[in-house]
Structures
1.
Amino acid sequence: MIVGAGFGGLSATTALAHAACDVTVIDRHNYHLFQPLLYQVATAGLPPSDIAWPIRSILHRQRNAVVLLGEVVGVDVGAHRVRLRDREIAFDYLIVAAGATHAYFGHDDWRPHAPGLKSVDDATQIRRRILTAFEAAEMEQDPERRARLLRFAIVGAGPTGVELAGTIAELARFTLAADFRRIDPRSAKVMLVEAGPRVLATFAQRQSQYAQRALEKLGVEVRVNSAVTACDAEGITIGGERVSTATVLWAAGVAAAPVGAWLGAATDRAGRVKVGPDLAVSTDPAIFVIGDSALVETAAGRVPGVAPAAKQQGRYVAAVIARRLLAQPAPPPFEYRNAGNFATIGRARAVIEFPFLTLRGWLAWWFWGVAHIYFLLGVPSPLMVSLRWLWEYLTYGRGARLITGAEDAD
Ligand SMILES: Cc1cc2nc3c(=O)[nH]c(=O)nc-3n(C[C@H](O)[C@H](O)[C@H](O)COP(=O)(O)OP(=O)(O)OC[C@H]3O[C@@H](n4cnc5c(N)ncnc54)[C@H](O)[C@@H]3O)c2cc1C
């Protein structure tokens, strides 16, 4: 039984294709989501269908896999049963790969005012808010209210915050520049607010400095050492300063899915379940937690919450189970092969850190692009996505500039 068909769950499933077992994959969505390109949907660069594919179609050739659409709400660990909203399903082995969600650090009331970016719904909601702000500004006569509509605040300067800030700045400066008559979209202000001392804190200092300079060249105002202390429908407060803005986006915190509570397992402060060297929980060798839901410590240190780590863990746990089924000795403890640390800043710059190489600038951007196309190879129609992406890149197009859905539909 595999809970979650994200990067971890899907790689475990496909790695079990030839094992002597039946695999049941349960996800609350009917699609697998390529989260690294979510910001492209949020900023109208790609349609959702370019970065999410039905799980059923991805696995349709895998005869031993059954896909179920359902939300897991708990696990009866003793009886080896997973609880869905309306039923329970028994398992022999369980792999939980339920990912993570946003953390508002105890301020859950900020959530409606500052959506985060984790799902397709989040991305289309953010797209709607950004595009609606420009539309409302075009109608607005009052200069102050117009300025508020054309001010965008992104909270949190990790890779997602940096990507959002850079891309919104480019959207305003290039893509929308000629589309409006009463407003000049280039006058939009994009602010990136970070509580810590620098952007891209998980990268080396030089990459952070480069990223900040690149953002500032795009017109983004970068505020470091600036904790947001209040957030409401009118804007945000940074220390004693009030910033009036119609659009606040949250890229500041991550909390694991509530897997620790389901399993009664120990977690860290971000809710990640502590697992052993074979990625099983300490209380039951048949229950594994992987990906963003897991806290994995190896001899080389803590494994980061990135897609390659989840995929490697999925394949590793599949090998553990396949060997157990054949009564073969267990593989050696899990080790993470560092696949690099990436972040893009707009359409022409990126920073990349490998253990052996650091890249910055346009070369890094192209490297990042090619790496993502390579990642996409496991999903349906990667060529179409890559070509559409290249077209948007070359033309400064934002082909998916549709305002869809309603605020209260989310
Ligand atoms: C905006 C964004 C950008 C990112 N960019 C990058 C990047 O550039 N490079 C990189 O390496 N990583 C990136 N990441 C991180 C990367 O996407 C994650 O590390 C990776 O997705 C973790 O894989 P996972 O399998 O643990 O979880 P996920 O891929 O999140 O999958 C979890 C799955 O579990 C399902 N699920 C959750 N709860 C339940 C439930 N109760 N019942 C049933 N199903 C459930 C979800 O629907 C989902 O399909 C990014 C993440 C985000 C949000």
Note: The longest helix spans residues 120-139.
2.
Amino acid sequence: MTSPACPLCKKRGIPVDRATVICHAKESAWPIGDNPYHICENPGCEVVYFSSGGCLKKADVKTRVTFKESGPPRPLCYCKQVTEEDVISAIKQGAKTVEDVIEATGIGGGGLCKFTNPYGRCCSRYYLPFIKRALESQ
Ligand SMILES: [Zn+2]
């Protein structure tokens, strides 16, 4: 089964749970309806979530969705509220390994990703590659 395409940019979306969309939708975008939602992963597209009943753009979502943002703060771990800037700062202050960064920032293990992360998925698939890249670029 292929995913439906974003109504604005036509890129295929990734399915997201309705509970996740409810957590991130601004009250002004209520009601979000009962149709299944998808997230648009195109960084340049204003649409965050869409369903066959409509879409929620960046302005309709209260959470900063990291890949849609070019400036700080760029959230990395929503449960523990750690940003990309926090990770960079930990590395500047001497963190040398992924474990050091985890210890210094408290990133990961929050367990609430279904509600806090705009994908509704564990943040580690995003923050681990980011931490590795940040360490390598030092
Ligand atoms: Zn889009």
Note: The two ends are 43 Å apart (CA to CA).
